[in-house]
């Protein structure tokens, strides 16, 4: 098995590389990444990329077709990956998350790649009522990031056929430990605030819903998707990826964090305007199609692992929202230093 992981030097990549190496100990694993966050390592025992056969630095927007020779599967993690970044770099978000991803899939199909796995998102459901969203429900993307995922899925569906299987994992909100940790995610931010300030400040009234998924469980799901036959879900599959048990509200995430990290004060904002990103997701289809790759992590163990690793690295920066653990701040500093242009291309 020869697999290319595009965007492997981000938050999810280390978990995915570890999972795929476990599944394919004799396989050929190649990482391809532009390298924005390659230096953002957090408490690693070894460099995560040592589990790869090769690491290539490059931009998905100019992905070289000759790298596809003999490749069996591609996993596309490359993305401008949160709403603040998407809002600031909307056209770049569409270029990377949508246009470049579709071009890569087209080249993959033309070169005989059998499986294409795309990291999509449940955020495309947007504001929803209290009933968990199913894959067949109406999409309501509210941000550039969510729209990019919708546009990409529409194109992928037209590409898929019996010789080219496409799986779009519509992931719940990511959380949990990574050796390239991000703290611009809701649960991760709560853990960081609890450790540094013994305080969690919820900007809303705490009632908005979020489905959540641990990075390790995301990796298990993509591992399944890489080898998924068309007979299991169809040549094109967009599937909510997570667990019904992890549909939770923001206040419950804060309370779980305070349960693991004692002495934490929780505050809410009862006068906050309604959060338009409130939704639940139904994960029944994923459970049916991938019974052996269901989420194994839970909320408390996820908080415990993050707390333990941050403590081991002597994390104490109460100003962490301005640090390299916030992706938008990393990009901003690279631009300030004249290393990236307005299109987020490296300046040579």
General description of the model:
34% of the residues lie in helices and 16% in strands. It is of the alpha/beta class. It has one domain (2-336): Rossmann fold, CATH 3.40.50. The strands form 3 sheets. A 7-stranded parallel beta sheet has the order 3-2-1-4-5-6-10, sandwiched between helices. α1 links the parallel β1 and β2. The protein is globular, with a radius of gyration of 19 Å. The mean pLDDT is 95.
SSE arrangement:
Blueprint: E1 2-6, H1 13-23, E2 28-33, E3 54-57, E4 73-76, H2 83-88, H3 90-110, E5 115-121, H4 144-159, E6 165-171, E7 173-175, H5 186-197, E8 199-201, E9 209-214, H6 215-227, E10 236-241, E11 247-249, H7 250-260, E12 265-267, H8 284-289, H9 299-312, H10 327-336
Parallel strand pairs: 1-2, 1-4, 2-3, 4-5, 5-6, 6-10, 7-9, 8-12
Antiparallel strand pairs: 9-11
Helix pairs in contact: 1-6, 3-4, 5-7, 5-9, 7-9
């Amino acid at each position: 098995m020869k697999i290319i992981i595009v965007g492997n030097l981000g938050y999810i990549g280390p978990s995915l590389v570890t999972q795929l190496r476990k599944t394919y100990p004799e396989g050929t694993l190649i990482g391809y990444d532009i390298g924005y966050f390659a230096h953002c390592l957090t408490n690693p025992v070894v460099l995560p990329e040592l589990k790869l056969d090769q690491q290539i630095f490059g931009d998905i927007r100019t992905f070289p077709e000759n790298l596809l020779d003999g490749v069996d599967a591609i996993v596309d993690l490359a993305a401008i990956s949160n709403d603040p970044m998407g809002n600031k770099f909307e056209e770049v978000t569409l270029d990377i998350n949508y246009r470049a991803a579709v071009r890569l899939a087209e080249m993959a199909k033309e070169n005989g790649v059998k499986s294409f796995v795309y990291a999509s998102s449940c955020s495309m459901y947007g504001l929803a009522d209290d009933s968990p969203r199913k894959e067949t429900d109406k999409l309501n993307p509210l941000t550039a990031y969510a729209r990019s995922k919708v546009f990409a899925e529409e194109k992928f569906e037209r590409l898929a056929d019996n010789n080219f299987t496409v799986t779009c994992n519509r992931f719940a909100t990511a959380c949990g430990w990574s050796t390239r940790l991000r703290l611009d995610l809701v649960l991760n931010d709560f853990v960081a605030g609890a450790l540094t300030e013994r305080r969690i400040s919820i900007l809303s009234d705490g009632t908005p819903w979020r489905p959540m998924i641990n990075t390790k469980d995301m990796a298990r799901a993509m591992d399944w998707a890489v080898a998924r036959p068309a007979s299991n879900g169809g040549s094109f599959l967009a599937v909510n990826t997570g667990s019904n048990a992890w549909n939770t509200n923001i206040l419950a995430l804060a309370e779980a964090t305070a349960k693991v990290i004692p002495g934490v004060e929780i505050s809410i904002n009862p006068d906050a305007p309604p959060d338009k990103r409130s939704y639940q997701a139904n994960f029944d289809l994923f459970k049916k199609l991938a019974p052996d790759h269901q989420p194994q992590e839970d909320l408390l163990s996820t908080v415990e692992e993050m707390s333990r690793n941050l403590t081991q690295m002597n994390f104490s920066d109460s100003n962490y929202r301005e640090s390299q653990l916030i992706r938008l701040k990393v990009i901003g500093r690279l631009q300030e230093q004249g290393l990236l242009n307005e299109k987020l291309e490296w300046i040579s």
